[in-house]
Amino acid sequence: MAIEYREWHDGDDLALLEIWGDPDTAQARQFRGALAPSSNGRNGTPWRRCVVAEDVIDGVGIPVAAGVVYEASLHPERLWTYIEVAKDHRRTGIGASLLTMLRREAAHAPSGITRLRAKVEPGTAGAAFAEAAGLAPIQRSRLVIVEPGALRLPVFPDKDHGGRPIDGENAGADIVMDLATGSVELTDVVGRYYTAIHGWDSPGVLSVGQVQKLFLDELTGAHGAIVLRAQPESAFGAGVAPGRKGRIRAFAVSYAAPAGPDDAPHTEAAGSTGTDTPTDVFVGHEPALAADDAAEAVRDMLALIAYQHPVMLELDDSMTALRAAVEPLLAGGKARLAGAETLVVSD
Ligand SMILES: CC(C)(COP(=O)(O)OP(=O)(O)OC[C@H]1O[C@@H](n2cnc3c(N)ncnc32)[C@H](O)[C@@H]1OP(=O)(O)O)[C@@H](O)C(=O)NCCC(=O)NCCS
Q: How close is the Cα of 127 to the center of ligand 1, in Å?
């Protein structure tokens, strides 16, 4: 076997797809898309270096493996990397050689950032390779489906802050509210929450526009949001009707069901069909809340949104409040994993 290394060319994706076949894991499916021509990071495209390994047989090179390293504007403190080797060429050192070459390229990344980061699935060749390469887990992420009615609905006070009775139907009306996904108040708390749960890999400074683009605008599929507010308090004390809404304690953004065939694994993973297809949601809380308060707010929010229909959410180990709500449900069979875990590994 004579292996030669060269830059990525247009058309390599098709040649490699033929040799590789289906991706081993969801992460491989996601990151194959990052294999693309090298770029110096001008004209808005991120800096990227992509290398191909060819097996040269009778003077003809056949692409069998590729690796990429690239900068990201979101989470800029590390470079993403991905390597894939054809199954019949594995365990011969091609992956390790590609990684060495990518590290050498990374030493010249214009940002000066050289630390690498990758996504792998525990128990796979990718995870073993990462471990051998000195990339250790910095986060674990699970996709969880919460079954309907898994949590008891919160009981809302039947008196307002001023002590006036609220009739049954209106109880909670000033606590649970719909909010437009374009809301500035929502965008603010979503952005601060996202930053707070990513202490392990900072997203950098997030502008309002970026938060919208990542989680809330039409292209994300976001189609609704509800918030759980603190009870409104009157600036003039009890007995005077509060003029302002209470501040947001927790939020939930729901996303439209994926439609295209590309998204089929997602739907399959959800494990059900028709109206019981879990709704994708992003649940979080005001990061300034005390730990107990945040856990309670997130649990109440989850109870509300998963009252009649299942919901699916991404649960990172760093989401302490959400874990407090969801892990007992996983242990008790009222929630289940919708696929394999993902590890983010880094050096
Ligand atoms: C991960 C992958 C790229 C490894 O490629 P490779 O060419 O087989 O890797 P190497 O031969 O260079 O292996 C280097 C070391 O990693 C470890 N390793 C690699 N694959 C392993 C496996 N299946 N089980 C246990 N250890 C493994 C070993 O320590 C190995 O050294 P050794 O063979 O001397 O024991 C390949 O398995 C692959 O394409 N997997 C699917 C895509 C993927 O998950 N990529 C990882 C994201 S970066």
A: 8
